[in-house]
Design a protein that fits this description.
Blueprint (H helix, E strand, L loop, with lengths): L24 E6 L5 H11 L7 E7 L4 E7 L2 H4 L2 H6 L4 E7 L14 E5 L2 E11 L2 H11 L13 H11 L5 H8 L5 E8 L4 E5 L8 E5 L2 E5 L2 H6 L3 E5 L4 E6 L2 E6 L7 E2 L1 H6 L5 E2 L2 E2 H15 L6 E4 L5 H11 L7 E3 L12 H6 L5 E3 L1 H4 L3 E6 L6 H12 L4 E6 L21 H4 L2 H8 L3 E4 L2 H8 L6 E2 L1 H4 L16 H13 L1
Parallel strand pairs: 14-23, 17-20, 20-21, 21-22
Antiparallel strand pairs: 1-4, 1-10, 2-3, 2-4, 5-6, 6-7, 7-8, 8-12, 9-10, 9-11, 12-13, 15-16, 18-19
Length: about 500
């Protein structure tokens, strides 16, 4: 029997307990004579926080591409023998959180596609906004029996198909022809039998960086992944840039005019604290957010505690600025991974305690400031406040290191629908009463922007402001399953 991790029990224990779901992680390496599959494995391991549903690696030995992918965490998908069988000089890897298409094996990445020049494999971080339009275009270009009907329902599959369906002289030219057709957010790693490619959308919504290995090159979603494999950070791949890496080194060209709009939530939550984006260390930025939060929303309290792990740097910053001692009042279980066990009613009642438990001796009899990264539905914060009260906290002052999340993201983060976002319908005081805190405050949007050190005009703040820098077509309302909806409609028509 093949027992696969199903993801039913993880740090997002219950559907109603879900925070913002991360974007995907991508990694690529060109390193002749190195164990590229193992380098990619470790790169993906460092990017696991960006996606926990599935993982995959493709390698090329110069003549053919081999791919291995499965559902689950990186450490669950690959064995030593799997990695040993993935030989070659080039590899790309992907860890997924689904933003278009169901969380199924057929939708795991990298995707694979034959072309008249060879085979391509592709991994994608982000989310396209014109997926429906591209789907129709791919169907029109398909002259044989529809290959899009193979079961995959992702924007990544459509991109891969479109590249394969172009009729230019080289794969590189095919990719360059498709990039201007794509709208939305995408950081891509692509490979054929001999070359590693990478590309980034014109707005640079999702991060993508280039690193130098002793005997090759690497590209990754975050600098932390470069660190893990011993690559030296060279630079960010620019918005609107396309690079190719082969035996002749790195070639770069712009495929469009850049208009930077980096995701501000990368600074708040998504990226690892040991990552650098736009020259800013994420840990330092989060500490500065906490400092500004203390200035904007002071509290009369005895102790500052974080909701681990994402709230920790901001809590340290808050404590330093306020002069209130910092402490660890909540212990996180770091080993709640994916499991075969469906959460029972008993587990549901225990709720958040499976991943967080209070330190009574630290909490009891004290006025507490609790620092967290965001409030989405409010269920997690409500459970934490209740738990801290039961542990003997006298007062609980909740401080949030992002402004209220009022709008969904269509560029690669799965927050929730607008109807589910507690801040879209309630004022701060109403939310405070809902979660049971003695006080509640968020960092201001101005304070957050200043903390990043990035110009306001170069940041996407749509989840806070509702001002989307990339147009959102009406079919986005169908959500991540819109291609599956399209397929259903198509089947009905054919019947």
């Amino acid at each position: 029997m093949n027992r696969r991790a199903d993801g039913n029990l993880n740090h997002n224990l219950l559907d109603e307990d879900k925070g913002p779901q991360d974007a995907c992680g991508v990694f690529g390496v060109y390193a002749p004579s190195e164990e590229v599959a193992k380098l990619t494995f470790y790169g993906l391991y460092a990017l696991q926080h960006r996606g926990q549903e599935s993982a995959g690696i493709a390698t090329s030995d110069g003549e053919r591409i081999v791919i291995f992918k499965d559902m689950g965490l990186v450490s669950q998908v690959f064995t030593e023998s799997d990695l040993s069988s993935l030989k070659g000089d080039i590899a790309i890897g992907h860890c997924r959180y689904s933003t278009t298409g169901s969380s199924t094996w057929v939708n795991a990445q990298p995707t694979l596609r034959p072309t008249k020049y060879g085979t391509i494999a592709l991994g994608h971080n982000g989310n396209l906004t014109n997926t429906g339009e591209l789907f129709d275009l791919a169907r029109e270009l398909e002259t044989e029996a529809p290959k899009l009907g193979r079961g995959a329902t992702t924007d990544t599959e459509i991109m891969t198909a479109l590249i394969g369906l172009q009729d230019h002289e080289t794969i590189e030219e095919n990719i360059m022809a498709v990039l201007p057709l794509l709208q939305g957010a995408f950081s891509l790693v692509i490979m054929d039998e001999t070359t590693l490619y990478a590309a980034r959308d014109l707005n640079g919504v999702r991060p993508l960086v280039l690193g130098k290995l002793e005997k090759g090159w690497a590209v990754a979603s975050e600098t932390a992944a470069l660190d893990i494999v011993g690559a030296t950070f060279v630079r960010e791949i620019e918005p609107g840039e396309f690079i190719a890496i082969d035996e002749d080194g790195v070639r770069s060209q712009m495929w469009g005019t850049p208009d930077p709009k980096g995701c501000i939530f990368e600074y708040v939550y998504l990226a690892r604290p040991d990552t650098t984006i736009a020259g800013q260390g994420i840990h330092a930025v989060r500490g500065e957010i906490g400092r500004r939060l203390a200035i904007e929303s002071p509290a009369d309290a005895d102790l500052v505690i974080p909701v681990p792990e994402s709230g920790t740097p901001a809590a340290i910053g808050y404590a330093k600025q306020s002069g209130i001692p910092f402490g660890l009042g909540l212990v996180k279980n770091s080993y709640v991974g994916r499991t075969f066990i469906q959460p029972s009613q008993t587990i549901r009642q225990l709720g958040i305690r499976l991943k967080l438990n209070p330190l009574r001796e630290i909490i009891e009899g004290k006025r507490i400031v609790v620092v967290d990264d965001s409030i989405v539905r409010g269920n997690t914060q409500r459970a934490i406040v209740k738990m801290l009260r039961e542990a003997g906290a006298l007062e609980i002052h909740v401080r949030i290191s992002s402004p209220p999340v009022k709008w969904p993201c269509f560029y690669g983060i799965d927050f929730a629908t607008r109807a589910e976002l507690i801040s879209s319908g309630l004022e701060v005081e109403e939310i405070r009463r809902s979660i049971g805190a003695d006080s509640l405050a968020y960092v201001s949007e101005e304070g957050l922007i200043e903390a990043t050190g990035v110009e306001e005009s170069k940041l996407c703040r749509a989840c806070f402001s509702g001002q989307y820098p990339i147009a959102i077509p009406t079919d986005m309302s169908e959500g991540k399953m819109r291609l599956e909806v399209t397929d259903v409609h198509t089947e009905k028509v054919h019947k």
